[in-house]
Amino acid sequence: MSKIIDTFIAPPCHDKIENLYQDESLVLINKPAGLLSLSGKNPQNLDSVHHRLVQVFPGCTLVHRLDFGTSGLMVIARNKAVNAALCQQFSQRTVTKVYSALLCGHLDDDEGVIDAAIAKDPALFPLMSICATHGKPARSGYRVVERFYRELEGGTLLPVTRVQLIPETGRTHQLRIHCQLLGHPILGCDLYGGRLLPGTERIRG
């Protein structure tokens, strides 16, 4: 059996976590892009949402995660009972998650669903793969918000589509690999074929 070795080292994140709401049960935050949700096994990947928040809210736990390169809302439980209740809501899919992304190219359809199982593959780590045989069910919806062109150096126009992505399941890299399968990878996500633009950061983790 192949052994997965994670060599990724997250660059320092100097952005602060924005605290949007808190009470005795939970904390609602806005996670900055470039910050791990949970500390990695490598000591150099200690900095994370959980590591920072547990200093302020001892005993707090993550109910869900966002990818390293993704910014957005996260809900943090402050005790075990709340964690169990929120985790149940996520597992029963009574929580709707909506992501905003820029995709390479112009999508033909205004909305649709990608239904394709996703599997881990040690030979491709950290990439995931589409695999109907060994993969876990994965389903994502999308809605087009706008289609436009972004001007590059030299006057070249890059077609871009802004979309809302609605994952019905929560597989690793699900939205990234589903957008790649759609033929329109996420802009800046070079792991799954997204074009990199001057001045933009790679989406990793």
Automatic annotation (TrEMBL):
Q: Which UniProt keywords apply?
A: Isomerase
Which gene underlies this protein? rluA_2
Any one GO MF term held by the record is: tRNA pseudouridine(32) synthase activity
Q: Which GO terms describe its biological process?
A: enzyme-directed rRNA pseudouridine synthesis
- Domain named Pseudouridine synthase RsuA/RluA-like is located at 26-180
Question: InterPro entries from the xrefs?
Answer: PsdUridine_synth_cat_dom_sf, PsdUridine_synth_RluA-like_CS, PsdUridine_synth_RsuA/RluA, RluA_PseudoU_synthase
* Record keyword Isomerase present: yes
Main EC class of this protein? Answer: isomerase
* CDD domains assigned: PseudoU_synth_RluA_like
In its UniProt entry, the species of origin is given as Serratia plymuthica
Task: Give the family per the record.
Answer: Belongs to the pseudouridine synthase RluA family.
- Signal peptide positions are none
Q: Which SUPFAM superfamilies match?
A: Pseudouridine synthase
Protein's recorded name = Ribosomal large subunit pseudouridine synthase A
Q: Tell me where on the tree of life, at the top rank, the source sits.
A: Bacteria
What is this enzyme's EC? 5.4.99.28
The transmembrane residues are none
